[in-house]
TrEMBL record:
<dbReference type="GO" id="GO:0032465">
    <property type="term" value="P:regulation of cytokinesis"/>
</dbReference>
<dbReference type="GO" id="GO:0005813">
    <property type="term" value="C:centrosome"/>
</dbReference>
<protein>
    <recommendedName>
        <fullName>Endosome-associated-trafficking regulator 1</fullName>
    </recommendedName>
</protein>
<dbReference type="GO" id="GO:0045724">
    <property type="term" value="P:positive regulation of cilium assembly"/>
</dbReference>
<dbReference type="InterPro" id="IPR026757">
    <property type="entry name" value="ENTR1"/>
</dbReference>
<dbReference type="GO" id="GO:0030496">
    <property type="term" value="C:midbody"/>
</dbReference>
<dbReference type="GO" id="GO:0036064">
    <property type="term" value="C:ciliary basal body"/>
</dbReference>
<dbReference type="GO" id="GO:1903566">
    <property type="term" value="P:positive regulation of protein localization to cilium"/>
</dbReference>
<feature type="coiled-coil region">
    <location>
        <begin position="19"/>
        <end position="92"/>
    </location>
</feature>
<dbReference type="GO" id="GO:0005769">
    <property type="term" value="C:early endosome"/>
</dbReference>
<comment type="similarity">
    <text>Belongs to the ENTR1 family.</text>
</comment>
<dbReference type="GO" id="GO:0055037">
    <property type="term" value="C:recycling endosome"/>
</dbReference>
<keyword id="KW-0175">Coiled coil</keyword>
Length: 155
């Protein structure tokens, strides 16, 4: 019985040592598990932050793309309008060139008429100037007479 008891105690000691070893392993594994959980949570947060950053960049790029498309559309419309205007100007230029000789005759006729009118105005202005000078001389004479009368009345 003593031998059996000693044997059982020895087994119990071995089992206690084994149990403590297993408990140590368990604690180490639990600690490692906790560290892995924290690490995974941090990685998950980092991934989530990266995903949000990528989404923001995508939204920004989408806005830029829409803006660029709108600008391209506006530029295409403006280009089409300018092409139409250019065509109209070319047509008008050709019309002006073809009508230039006829216009030149009209311009010459208008210049001749303007010259005649200018000569008439010069002639009329000369007589008006002569009348004005004559009127000024008359006014000077009247002024001189008034001065003389004023002197005579003082004397």
């Amino acid at each position: 019985l003593k031998e059996e008891n000693a044997s059982l105690r020895s087994k119990i000691n071995k089992l206690q040592i084994f149990s403590e070893t297993q408990a140590d392993k368990m604690r180490k594994l639990e600690k490692k598990l906790e560290e892995n959980k924290i690490k995974e949570e941090k990685e998950a947060q980092d991934l989530e932050a990266m995903v949000q950053h990528v989404e923001q960049n995508l939204q920004l790029m989408t806005k830029r793309a829409v803006k660029a498309e709108n600008n391209a559309t506006k530029l295409k419309q403006e280009n089409a309008l300018l092409q139409v205007q250019l065509k109209n100007y070319k047509t008008e230029n050709e019309a002006l060139r073809s009508g230039q000789s006829a216009s030149l005759a009209v311009v010459k006729q208008n210049a001749d008429l303007a010259l005649q009118n200018l000569l008439t105005v010069i002639t009329n202005s000369r007589s008006s100037i002569k009348q004005l000078v004559s009127g000024a001389e008359s006014l000077q004479l009247v002024a001189d007479l008034l001065k003389s009368i004023d002197r005579i009345s003082e004397v």
